[in-house]
Amino acid sequence: MLILGAGCSNEYPTSIPMARECAQVAHAALLQDGVLAEGDCLDPSDLSAVADAVWTKTGQQRPLVEHLPLSEFRHSEPNEGYLAAAALLRERALAAVVTLNYDLTISHGLAAVTSSAPVEELAGLADHYRLSTANVIYLHRNVNSGPEEWVMRTAVLAQGWRGGWEEMIASAVLVTPVTVFVGLGSRATVLIETVIRIRQALQSGIETFQVDTDVFGGSAFTAVAGINEDRYVRMGWSAFMADLGQRVVNEHLATVVTAAQQFSERENIRLEQIANDCDLLRHSGLVGLGRMRARWFLDRFNYVRCRDTRPEWTADVLLGIALVERVLGAEARFSESGLVEFDRHGVVIASVLVGHGMGDYRWASLETRMRLEVARRFTGDQAPNWILLLGHVGPPSMTSLPESLVGEADVNDVVRGPSTIRFLSVDELRADENAAQKLAS
Known about the structure:
By secondary structure, the chain is an alpha/beta fold. It has two domains: about 230 residues, no CATH class; about 190 residues, no CATH class. The protein is about 45% helix and about 15% strand. The chain is elongated and about 80 Å long.
């Protein structure tokens, strides 16, 4: 499980933490509005201190919340770290992401990495019934919460959570075997006390790590939470998340290599060399590979989990691509769009789109589906001329009416797609390898 602080939006220790910048800008505006006077807040760079001062003067938080960058919080763009976190949640490699921030960046990451695997989002007691196997939890509420619900003031952060939803949710999610705190500069009392209590109760089986760009001991959180140096990882947020995602990718590709050997033996086909292509996919990262699977296997979402496909399907694709590479004397380049380009000495000699029927589609229906996919994914000048089909039921068959009867199709025709598209079955290539030369013609 991941616990996220403001540092997840900043990749370098010299970056100004978002909370500090927000506090200073809001404090200046509150002075200008006359809500606060000079000296009311002893530390204008501390958001909690500003919240305390506003509460003391007005008995509410709204004046402060209204001066925060709410639009930016609502429309924040996820960086690569957040996309990887979303993919890890989809993969069930993470049980939960708990964020102390008010922005919706992790939600936007989930929206960018769509999948059939649901992830619940909770921002308060009213959402508690949705707690599931994979969750995003806004422990201090988020920008969509009412201004008085935001957990901001020192008293609430220190004591107000006791017996409330924060303590209940922390106790529920912090029993995971591994908890990683990322980018936390503050003490986060509810989390620290809950972790310590669970450690004492369970004695073993609970490991706690901290990830930060600062040197060990540079964060007040480290000592209070009892993080030892061997459990401290000095690394940026995006780099750390990429490494976590890489472990899932490596495990998946290992199963693909094994599946390729078994598939080759069972179907009595040549075992092509797929190691280089596996390396290319490995470099694409967790998100990139999941998006390629979605394209190859015609999923309605833009990300497909490892567990939602059979390793032999990916092995089938890579064996087919490696066959073309060998015959053409070229190297493959993979794209998240599902397009594969074949490069020979720096020149792209062929470009194909891959479609795998997973044993569900006959040739006719798979061809129709791929024409629709081309029309949906590509503009006319980007559309591939060739589509490689795999995993279809039965042999290839004639499915299109003669061009003399139907005329020339528009490149953006959503039914038939570009008329210049030609289809080739990888099974045909395995029966006659020279047919691969047509791809470069």
